[in-house]
Amino acid sequence: MYLSSKPSRMRLREAENARRNRLEIVKAFSHGQVTRRELLKWGLFTAAGALAWKHGLNPFVASAHASIPTGAPSSPLFGVQPFSTPMPRFDLIPRHPNPLVFLNPAPTRLANTTQHLCDSRLPGVVAGDTGPIEGRPPGEIWAHQRWDEYLPQIAMEVTQEGAKTNTVYNPGVAPQHNSGINPATPIPVKFHPGFPTQDPNSVWTFNGTIPPKLAISRYGECCLMRDHNRLPYDVTQNNGFGRHTLTTHEHNGHHGAENDGFTGAYFYPGQFYDYHWPWVLAGHYSINAAATDIRASTPNGSGGLIKIPGDWHETMSTHWFHDHMFEHTAENVYKGNAAMNNIYSGLDRGNEAINDGVNLRLPSGTAKDSGNLEYDVNLMIADKAFDQDGQLLFDLFDRDGFLGDLVTVNLTYRPYFEVERRKYRFRILNASVARFYKIMLSDASPMIQIANDGNLLPRPVVLSRLDEIGVAERYDIVIDFSRYSIGEKVQMVNLLEHKDGRKPETSLSLSEALSGRSRDPGVGTFLEFRVVRNPAQPDVSQVPATLIPNPDLSAIPVSRIRRFKMGRGAQQPLSTADGSASEGEWGTSFNGGPMLAAAYSRVSSAPQYGTREVWIVENGGGGWDHPLHIHFEEGQILSRDGSASRVPAWERGRKDVYRLRPGGEIAISLQFRDWGGMFMQHCHNTTHEDHAMLMRWEINDGGAPFLRPLPTPIPRPQGVIFKDSVVLKDV
Amino acid sequence: MKVYRVLLSPALLAIVLAGGWVAWWTSAPAQAAGTWNTISVPVRGVVAGKAETVRFSGQAKVESKIAPDPDFNRPTLVLTIDLSGVGGEGAQSRARYVISGPEQQNRSVTDWYLLEFDFPFARSGSDLPTTRSGTATFALTVDTTTGAVTSASASIK
Prior knowledge:
The complex is a heterodimer of chains A (about 725) and B (about 160).
Chain A: H1 9-30, H2 36-41, E1 91-92, E2 96-97, H3 99-102, E3 115-117, E4 130-132, E5 154-162, E6 204-206, E7 213-218, E8 223-229, E9 248-251, E10 272-277, E11 297-299, E12 305-307, E13 318-323, H4 329-334, E14 338-344, E15 376-384, E16 406-409, E17 412-413, E18 416-420, E19 423-430, E20 439-441, E21 447-452, E22 455-463, E23 474-480, E24 489-494, E25 496-498, E26 504-507, H5 510-514, E27 524-533, E28 558-568, E29 586-590, E30 602-605, E31 611-619, E32 627-630, E33 635-640, E34 654-655, E35 657-659, E36 665-672, E37 678-683, H6 686-690, E38 694-698, E39 712-714, E40 721-723, E41 726-727
Parallel strand pairs in A: 1-7, 5-8, 7-14, 15-19, 18-27, 28-31, 30-38, 30-41
Antiparallel strand pairs in A: 2-5, 3-4, 5-6, 8-10, 9-13, 11-12, 13-14, 15-16, 16-17, 19-23, 20-24, 21-22, 21-23, 24-27, 25-26, 28-29, 31-36, 32-35, 32-37, 33-34, 33-36, 37-38, 39-40
Chain B: H1 12-26, E1 37-47, E2 54-67, E3 76-82, E4 86-90, E5 96-99, E6 103-108, E7 112-123, E8 132-142, E9 149-156
Parallel strand pairs in B: 1-9
Antiparallel strand pairs in B: 1-2, 2-3, 2-4, 3-6, 4-5, 5-7, 7-8, 8-9
């Protein structure tokens, strides 16, 4: 919704008052002091879930004019000019060998139920209560699957905590590959050096610091990621948004469900959760099980390869991980709970020089055996908004999808990045709540898209402008800066204009986007590349004509076709009292059944272990778009609106987020193998997700540990309890 | 809970009624999904630039449909414009140039659009880094009921 870009002082004051009023309600709502039902009863929410059209509450009511699109006055810029600060590279998460020794207490197959004293500020806790130190649900069902087969070799230990200064920044590259940033200089949590420092409860990130974190993973190298929750015990200490309970989803790991960040397997401040990421290729028990195919391989540390089981066509590259807390994912991810994960393999090694017939030699570097980052750059794009004090702002009342008015890259407002005259790989992640982007270079030069989501495409695609990148999608692209002269600058431009968070409204031309006339402040330039020098060494990287062909599905029968519809007007027949069911208006219907709001205690589908299915998913409206995320294994889009030819070249690889497009329908091929447990699918417009556009499915094998239905965990500080799950007919 | 201005107004009843109306409206059966319409549009134009000028001609395939919006009655026109049927010829070399990638756009429904977008093209058989960009402009008249393009003109520069 667009309002005047030049509001009067009086109208700005009204809008600020409206924002504060909403903030008070948001606080009460986020603290659990009022329920959605009570807000509805008071007339502050409409039955459709929108903020009531009230003067002094809704900023879009006549006479209470705010700037778009946040529903609040424009974020203050404090005199900051665009492209006045360097873009920091990601901050590497330290890797430690031998997790069983390094981590204290040592990780265990079953959840560690050693008791500790619960802090009495936690909800439902009285002085003297004890609870388990690990938040993972106890017992065999949540035990790490195939633990003895995949004992962890690498430990990563992180915290989730309030904003604090980073004194241990490690970008993994020398300063000349990080726009001159000296990593020894402490980095306070600011979205630009000219912005105020964020309050510890305004921003919650991994390790409490910025830049965002990057995990380095390798196939065949099993990782144990210990995640400590060090957020405030008091649920009200959140500066108005954010929930202090966490569950971390590795997006989109082919791991057991106990490591998937299931929305109902959350843990409390004071607890940790051990996530076991074995890094195996999908199909590792059924395809190339004897590990004879050299293309299914991983770097050995000295220029060679180690063969691993599984289907090399399922090799993945660019992941991220983020919070998945039921009904609070948007708040927590927006608040900073997002990191990326580069996965290296024989094919995508992160070394552009090794010429072994397997390595694709994509732009990266040469100094290390694998995982070189000099020319392989992670970009996390996210729109943010700030209050008049410069603190991060979020509006829970925006049920269409929250939009920020400032676009950040790696949590920095409109930065620049220095490059050499050669090829670079950029791993672009859209980590926004609801905003989509359409990216182009300001001089219309072509870009080469090499991957979509976590997966290298079968063939590279040359584009002048990338397709829309929906929330949680990742596009890996290559830009060749050798076409520029030293001293030249070129910007990344967002062409996509939003009026609200329902969907992008219009794709602008380059000249329109650069004109500054769009009323959406998210349109226009957001990252500047500065060509500063020639490379010290010749660029030996390649973009091969063939990358990773799709897995061959022709010999795998389709055991079942399911139909889902994502839409509005959902009903919730289950009780919401224990927090496992949502009253949100969004929902999913299964095979023509009722549109149901999310309940993580309800099993909506149960594919048989070891089978392949086709899921047809329809967007119930033309006024919305939904980036559907299906957890667990990558899928292939077979058709759009019933036609395979409507699947563009850049979507013809494997994916884990599927934009439905307005009124659109897609058919996806999925396999269910190797691991078991409960997983999810949901809209990754996280506002829609939090307001109930999420459903649980689980893999049915008829025997432990893949029982069906699995009991539903209900986490409490004193220990997880379980309740019976509800199973839809004909799952 | 602090309140910075009076929140509740006497219009509560009206809001409840409005909410009820919205609930009724959104529970109505969904409108049928739109069907795709296809039209071929002749395209001509010249892209000047380094290496050589390239003259383009051929037929663009424009597919369109209306995606109804049962929630807010703000339907979307969904468009795909495929230029792969448009070929180029180098003014000096006489070499063949090809265009890759369809353009996908979503727009609010009106009866006339002027769309401009950039597209990549390359000498046939050449490697990826030699790709250049051109700009296509389409003027489309659209039947707002079906989403079908009823008349169109297009150019390249």
